[in-house]
Every structure is written in C-alpha cells, then in structure tokens.
Amino acid sequence: MRINILAIESSCDETAAAVILNGKILNNIIASQSVHTTFGGVVPELASRAHEKKIVSVVNDALTSAGISIRDLDGVAYTRGPGLIGSLHVGASFAKGLALAQGIPLIEVNHMQAHVMAHFLPEQKPQFPFLCLTVSGGHTQLVLMRDMLQFELLGQTRDDAAGEAFDKGAKILGLPYPGGPLIDKLAASGNPNRFRFPHTTMPGYDFSFSGIKTALLYMLRDEIAKAPDFIEKNLNDLCAGYQQRILGMLMEKLKQAAEDFGIKTVGLAGGVAANSGLRSLLNKEASRYGWQVHIPDFGYCTDNAAMVAITGHYKFLQGSFSELSAVPVASLGPDMAFGS
Ligand code: KG4
Ligand code: ZN
Predict the structure, then answer these.
(1) Is 181 in the pocket of ligand 1 (CB under 6 A)?
(2) Could you tell me if the CB of 184 is within 6 A of ligand 1?
(3) What is the tens place of the pLDDT at every residue in 282-325?
(4) Considering only CA atoms, which residue is closest to atom 24 of ligand 1?
(5) How far is CA 97 from CA 76, 92, 101, 304, 323, in A?
(6) Is the model's pLDDT at 266 over the cut of 80?
C-alpha cells in the first residue's frame, strides 16, 4: 500500500510543510518569519498573518518538490497544539479544507509528541524504552516512550522553558534574540565556575528556570552599580556560569529518570539540543552510564513539518484520524493530552 501524507506545522513562527511517502521524508520546507526580529520575540498577531500569507506557497513547494499533486495525497496531518492559537488556526483550517476537498483522512498531531517523534525519521531509530528530553524556547519536557506513539510525560517545567531561560538571560546581558546560540558560543571560552547561579530543586522530574534569570538580573544590578563595564569585562564567564547551571538542572533530572526507569536509550529534541555544552555533557554521561544517545539532525530538532509528518504516518497506520470539528489547543492538559 502507498501512503503519501502531507504535514503542516504552524504552531509558532515557522510556516512548514513536508511530504512523507511510506514513512520516508521527501522534503521539509520551512519559511521562517523575519517580521519578529525587531520585537525581540514572537508577536502572536504578526505570526498568524505571516502564516496566512505563506501557507499556500509552502505547501505548493512541498508538493512540487515531492513531484506529486494534491490528488496523490492519502492523508493530511497538522499540528493541533500546543502553540499560538491564531497560528494553529491557520494550519488547522488549511489542513481541514484540504482533507475535506480531497476526501482524505485528517490527522491531528501533538507538537510536543512530534518533537519526540523526530527521532524516528532516520534509519537508525531508538529502541524502547526511550527517554527524551525536549528542550525548546517554549517547552521543557521529559518524556518516556515504551512503545510507538506511547508517550508518558514524566516531568516538565513549572515556569520558563530552558530555551526561554537562555533567551531571557541573553536579553539581560544585552545580547540579541534568540540569545541561546550566542550564550553557547560565548560560554565556550568562559570559566563556568567564576559566577555561581542558583540550582532550583523541584519535586519529581519537574524543572524550574525562572529563578536563574532573576539571579542574573540582581547580580548585574549590584555589580554594574560598582563597575559600569562589568558585563563587557566578564561576558564569557557570565555566559559559561549561566549555561552550566541550566544544563546542570536539565541533566540532573534526565539522569534521575534514566536510573529510576532503567533506561539505556536517551535522546534530545527541540532547539536547545543544538547547545554544544549540552551535547558534550550528554555524551560524557552516556559513556559513564552506557546510554545510547539519539539526537536528530538540527533541522529536525527545531520546529519543522517532518516531525509532524512522521507522527502522522504512524497515526495513519493505526487508523487514528481526527474529526473536522477538532479545535486547536494552545496548552496541553496533564499527560500531554489535548482535552475535550
Ligand atoms: O525548538 P525551537 O526552534 O523553537 C521553539 O521554541 O519551539 O527552539 C528555539 C530555542 C530558542 O530559545 C533558542 O535560543 C534555543 O532554542 N537555542 C539554543 C541554541 N540554539 C537554539 N539554546 C542554547 N544553545 C544553542 N546553541
Ligand atoms: Zn517546538
């Protein structure tokens, strides 16, 4: 049987589409929105408008590069949530219209599950049980997969996401948005032990990253009062210390969960998976504990439609289809559920 699925992702500021044929990704088209750069963060209203403008051409590009037309599609998958509600509506409405017009199944995809499912795109797929740390600008989650499409949310952030902590810290240090990659770069030549930041302890496998940015803010306020060029003189060491603390909090829970559940297969997902410090820490722990580590290519870690497509493919195989009346959802309920 041939299964050709078109996937659409529009949860934040990337308008993305991908075509997957029998579980093999044919393309992964992404139009990023530059309109937000001057605002230092994503402006929801502008994001929805940009999706509306770009969605037709992005889908067209995906179909054209796959060498197919909409008549060749067997299903259409879309991100139902979580995300910016206006942005989600654009992708959802487009997918519904297409499914209805073509008389093909509609498949709703959970964006957080899709990040984890990005690991099943390459030939070499993780073995179950598989523990995934998803770290992006909007989310921080520890998810355990015991089988295909079985997701158990072990823990998540109670406030800021890890990427958000990077971005907010960078902003306080006067660095441009998104600051994560810059902190990573500057930290590489800094001393992580010169400036100490608080380690917030949360129950279970939950995280909290709002305290560290406040600690940075207060430290800078006090130090700049004594020496106005404090940031300039200590930027690398500040970044190194700040990054080390965020990574320490992430790794602590990952190691704990791996030990508690006897996991040997571990992965990273989300934009922060690009962090070089996190990657080397993970590899270090992997050789210590005998973990097999999976990190998808960077293009599959940040928001993309290929991860929606692979999730859609497996849901199609299960016959897990969605109603046309399904409403986009901005935030997930407990256990990553959409709710009713
Ligand atoms: O997954 P993503 O592209 O978008 C969502 O938030 O869904 O993640 C973006 C986040 C931003 O917070 C960005 O600062 C962070 O990933 N990021 C990094 C690095 N590259 C991207 N954070 C730390 N180090 C990096 N090298
Ligand atoms: Zn995401």
Answers:
(1) yes
(2) yes
(3) 999 999 999 999 999 999 999 999 999 999 999 999 999 999 99
(4) 275
(5) 10, 9, 6, 21, 12
(6) yes
Residue 302 Cα, ligand 2 centroid: separation in angstroms? Answer: 6
C-alpha 141/C-alpha 139 separation (Å) is: 6
- pLDDT value for 319: 98
Best probe residue, ligand 1, of 302, 307, 331, 332 (max atoms within 8 Å of C-beta): 302
Q: What DSSP element (H or E) covers 31?
A: strand 24-32
| 55-97: pLDDT as tens digits | 999 999 999 999 999 999 999 999 999 999 999 999 999 999 9
C-beta atoms surrounding 10 within 10 Å:
36
Query: Rounded to whole angstroms, how far apart are CA atoms 131 and 152?
Result: 10
Structure tokens that stand for 297 in this block: 């290519």
Kindly report, residue by residue over 104-163, the tens digit of the pLDDT.
999 999 999 999 999 999 999 999 999 999 999 989 999 999 999 999 999 999 999 999
For the Cβ of 163 lying below 6 angstroms from any atom of ligand 1, the answer is yes
Give, using CA atoms, the residue closest to atom 23 of ligand 1: 180
Indicate if the pLDDT at residue 249 is higher than 80: yes
Q: What is the DSSP string of 249-272?
A: HHHHHHHHHHHHTT--EEEEESGG
Q: Is the CB of 155 under 6 A from ligand 1?
A: no
Judge if the upstream peptide bond of residue 82 is cis by omega within 30 degrees of 0. Answer: yes
Tell me, in angstroms, the distance from the centre of ligand 1 to residue 75's CA.
30
How many other CB atoms are found less than 10 A from the CB of residue 45? 10
255 CA to centre of ligand 2 in angstroms: 23
Q: Which of 11, 166, 301 for a ligand 1 pocket mutation test, highest count of atoms within 8 Å of Cβ? A: 166
Which token pair is 331?
């935030």
